[in-house]
Every structure is written in structure tokens, then in C-alpha cells.
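Hi L.,

You mentioned the student needs an example of a multi-chain input paired with its predicted structure. This one should do, with 790 residues in total across all chains.
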Amino acid sequence: MVRTNAFYAQSGGVSAVINASASGLLQTARQRSGKIGKVYAGRNGIIGALTEDMIDTSVESEAAIAALKHTPGAAFGSCRYKLGSIHEHRAQYERLIEVFRAHEIGFFFYNGGGDSQDTAYKVSQLAAELAYPIVCVGIPKTIDNDLPITDCSPGFGSVAKYVATSLREAALDLAAMSRTSTKVFTMEVMGRHAGWTTAACALAGEHEGDAPHILLLPEVAFNEKRFLAKVEEALERHDHCVIAVSEGVKGPDGEFLSALGLKDSFGHAQLGGVAPVISNLISTKLGCKCHWAVPDYLMRSARHIAAETDVEQAYAVGRAAVEFAIAGRSSVMPAIRRLSDAPLSLGHHRGAARRGGQSREAVALRLHQRRRLRDHRGGPPLFGATHRRRSLSAI
Amino acid sequence: MVRTNAFYAQSGGVSAVINASASGLLQTARQRSGKIGKVYAGRNGIIGALTEDMIDTSVESEAAIAALKHTPGAAFGSCRYKLGSIHEHRAQYERLIEVFRAHEIGFFFYNGGGDSQDTAYKVSQLAAELAYPIVCVGIPKTIDNDLPITDCSPGFGSVAKYVATSLREAALDLAAMSRTSTKVFTMEVMGRHAGWTTAACALAGEHEGDAPHILLLPEVAFNEKRFLAKVEEALERHDHCVIAVSEGVKGPDGEFLSALGLKDSFGHAQLGGVAPVISNLISTKLGCKCHWAVPDYLMRSARHIAAETDVEQAYAVGRAAVEFAIAGRSSVMPAIRRLSDAPLSLGHHRGAARRGGQSREAVALRLHQRRRLRDHRGGPPLFGATHRRRSLSAI
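Structure written out for the whole complex:
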């Protein structure tokens, strides 16, 4: 194989650990400099390729590349941009080839969620449809944890830790105030179509009766009567009630609750926010004081409280992507495979780490598989996720 | 002085470090057991005294008392409850004396903000007006940082660290997304009548042009035209705009912006939230995609990211309260005095700590003084606050 350069870009909503994947990829590429030349990072995802706006990472210091592992945000800029089909938007793909050829790009790495893997798959068609030889590898990332086949998605573990920690702290605050003031606290959680991040709020509780008392998942239609009965029950038992609600909760009519008729003073529909809607409902119907929080970007960007397992997994999928590419495996995405269902205690984990034991591993997932299997997954969230550390290895 | 027992209680909105004050007070009281007997903690503030619902802390282990220093919430429960005047509500004060006498309470410690210091002052009148000998010491606490005379309020430093860290992380997220998606991010900050917590968001930026680009303080009337011009200017210069807004921002008419006509689907006025109002305004007038966050309780309860200086100061005022009480100084509150205006660099600080140097110290503030000087303070926030460590000692 001729030594060629690589293109790497970040796409979709940012996570707290997407730069750890960049760090894993760039450090590994440098170690394999006999196989990969320069790595160019696209500014703002695939748009950086289309506009030939690329950052030559080879001029960055080792320290700067290492520091990416603990840098929040998306260091090279992200984008929400979908490539059209290769048949209907041929000119766009020819432009990509023009840029790739000018920079001798033979490897394409795309770091993102479901839509980003779709982009990686489409770029991989350059090789077959337009006879431009390129090895394409997708790198998983999404806080929503809704990528199929991979056991979990880098970005999710950190959000799980953030929401569980934050909700527990806020619940202690509420419990101290409820006798004479606020009785109900509602926290809104990202994940419009998948309830994993909301379900992760359950990690805040250790014992029966601990907060959160109610979870509202986007997969379950909101039932006002049943919900209010549960709030009353929590108030009766605990004198306060903590609720985690997904931004994507829908009413029985299939409409988002967040859009339920909130108008500002100008009569414009109000932007987002289901937590205030839920709070208002409780306040109106049950007559108690409510507080609500919408952490929004704070939740997904909170590198200060990222989960160590998540950082290591994000780094490992970046590293695995390079290994796969060098092995000539195109149109694949490194995935995380579960090797054990028993969450490891810290003691067990240490033993396992010493013995080189692992509860997860990376496997190559063919990108077209994930397209077929988009709706394949389900079941309860993996509460053990944030208890595991250094459990991923690339094979 | 006869050895008598003590009553300690927590009051008002919870901070991330109020339990550190409890830890400082209880540990010091144990060390001075020749002067102070048992410390009873009131459940839910002064209500615990009125209802004789008190926790005997002497049965708690040393480890449990030490652990309070890093425990979120208010361990003994807080309250929002104002004592009436001793002349109009004599029966309530007689009830206090009844309970205090039954438990041989000779020391009263009340841990809270402005209203709580008022309660401590009123209880201190028992001695003079009802001839019940009691030494009363207030312990400062408020995230709003609006207690007079004391240089800063325990609780504020941690909120400052939380908002600055969170806003910086979210700003990096926004900067990565703004090319193709969200352009404006608005974070709402607690502090209805004081802008210190909002101003602390400025700590998120290091260089000219860094986020936040706009701060909306409760002390400055909102001017829609000027505000939108500033948003447009930020978008022009940086392609994105980060805004921190106080929950207490008011329009030119003196009304809270958060109450500006938001109605839910039932026509009820919407609960709180000025960030969505600001976002809606920008989205409507400038036509760009906006995100907003309202961290609410998450902000003030975030023990996971508490500022070390704040923890130490909270502990020190708890310790100082006991020393003052033993010295017979009644109707006082330990306050923090600034000894230097130069924020200490980490290197300087280490040197200072080794030499025993301090930039702040505790002084006794007479409780009636804070009543007179309620509106005394002003000026810019103390940005150096969170850079200082172990800078308080009780004198």
C-alpha cells in the first residue's frame, strides 16, 4: 500500500469526549507514520473537505495532541450537514475527489453519530462508484447512546455521570428545602428520541425511595393523570419529588410536550423546554412550589466531570479506527462489545486490569450493517456503563 | 461561665458548602468540650427549635462530622421561615426559651443569609428582653454574595466556579456548532437581586473576544435595542454569541423579564425562566438558532466542583463562630476581611501558605451593623475570589 495522507473530521452534536477520539486517532497515526502520512483535520466536518478548509495536524506538538484527550468541545469544529446521494449530487463527490487528490488523501475518518456514519458510508462509495481509492472508517460518538450494535456510544457515559451526579446534588438541596419551600424539582435531559440519558438519571439513587422518583422517557406517551398520581404519591411518602424528563417526551397525540402551546408576550411559540411545562402542570394542579432545570449544552459539554471509562473508550475507538484503516478494512466502524454483564466493583476491576481482563472490546462493524440495523436495538440502559474502566481494547 | 449546650441550624437556600460550616462548627465545639456541651442541630432551621425536633450531634462519629465538609445539601434540613418581632410574637419566643431551657441551650448558632442573620439577631434579644441568657452567633452563607461588610459570602465562590466552568465548556460546544447550527447560547444564572453570580460568568473568558460576550445583570434595566445590537455585533465578529443572564433582569418598567407574558396551554402564567424569553427574542428578531440553559438548583448544589477556597472559608466561619461564642461575643457574625487586592497566582499562593500569609481574615461583625448597612455595598465583583485558597483565619 502506498503511504498516503488522511482526512479526519468531527460531526454532529459535540460530546465531552469527542476530542479524546481525535487524540487517540492522531497519536496512533503518528506511531504508524510508515503507513499514514499527514493527517488533515477538516474544519467543521465534511464542510472542511468541500471548502478545502483543512488543518495540518502534523505541525501540532505532541503535547497539543495529547491535550486533546482532556479538551472540551470539538477542537476542529463540527457540523450538521448531510451529503446527498452520490447519484443525485455527483458534483459534490467530484469536488471531494478533487480536494482529496490535491492532498493525497487515502484515508477518511469521520467521527460522529448515526448521520455521520451515513456520511462515512457515502464517501466510501467514491472508491467503487468513482474509482477513487480511499479507505473509510467511521468513529462512533453520540451522547444519546442510540448507535446500533455497538454496546454503548462514546459520549454517553459522561452524560450519564453528569446527570446522575447533578440530579443527586439537586435532590439533596430539594430535600433540605421541601418542608417550607420547594416540593418538586424537574430536570430536563437531552436525547430527543432515545431515553438512555434520562434513564441514566436513575443512577442518582442508591436506595428505595431515593431520587429520582419519576422518569419520563421519550419512548412512553405522557399520561397526565397517571403522572400526577405518581407525583402525589412521592410527595406523600417523601415530602418532595424529583423528576427527570426527556426533552423528547410526547403526549398521547404524538406531539412533543415541550411545544404544548407556550407563547411569549409577542404570541410566538416558545422555544423548547419541557421541564417548565411539567413544572407548570404540577404547580397548577397540585398547588405546590416547583423548581426546574434545563442543563442543555452544559450536560453534553461537561468535560470537568467526564467518566473515565468514556474517555478511554472514546480514545480507543480513535486508535482502533487507524488500525482498521491500515489493515485495509474500509466501510467499517469500531464498535464496543460487551464481554461481561456483571458491573465490576473497583476491587474486581483492579484485579481484572492487572490480569488484563476486559469486559468490553472493539469490533469492526460494517457501516452498511448499521444502516440495516438502525432500529435494531432496545432494552434497558446499561447502568453498569460508568462503573467500568479501561474495558475496551481494539481487536 | 457554666458549661451549656448549643443549638445549630441551617437556613435559607442551600449552598454547596454550608455543610462545611457545620463541620467546622461541630469539630471545633468537640475540641472545646470544656466550654460547650452537646450541640443539637435543629431539623429545618429555627423550626427544629420551635417544634423541638433536634438532632443530638454528639452521638455522630468523628468520621461523620468530618464527612460533612464534602457533603452536598443541608444535612440537617433548611427552612424559609421568618421569626416575627419579639414584641408582636412573644409566645413564639417564649416557646423558644421553653425548648432551650429543657435542653440547657446557652449558645445559638444560625447559618444562613440576610434573613437568617435577622433571625439570629432576634433570638439574641431573648437575653435582653426576656432575661434568658444566650450567646447568639450568625454564620454567613449565601450564593448571591450580597451580605454586607463581609468581603464575600461562603457559597459564592463555588457558584462562581460552577458558572464559569460550565459556561466555558458550553461556549466551546457552541463555537464548534455555530457554522451550520446553533449561533447563540444563553445561560440563566441565580441571584435575583444581586449580579455577582452573573458577573462571575466573566471568569469563563481569558482573552478579548472569549465567551461570554454579553452579561445581563439585575442591577441594569434591560434595553432590547441595545441588547440586540450587541448580539449582532458578537455574531458578526465571532459567528456565535454567548450570553449570561441573571434570573432577576428587569425591563425598563421594573418588571421581571421572566414574567413577560409567557403562558402555557391552559393560559396560566409560566413559571420563571428568563433564558427562554431572551432566546425567543433573538430567534424572532435575528432569525438564528438559539439554545438556552437554566441550571437552577444544579448551580448552587454542585459540590462536585466546589471551590477549595470557598470550602475552607465556609469551614473557617463555622470554626470562628464557636471561638466567638466561647469568648462571650454575642450578636455577632464572623466575616471575611480582605487583606490584599492582588489575586494570588498558584506559585505566590503556595509561598504565602508556607509563610502563613493570608489575603483574608475573619472579623466579628455585629449583627445590628448588618441591619443598618444592608444597602451599603456595591462595586464590581471580586474576580480574584476563586483564585485564593486557605486565605481565611479567625481572629
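You could point out the following to them. Chain A is about 35% helix and 15% strand. Chain A touches chain B through 66 residues (CB under 8 Å).

Best wishes,
N.
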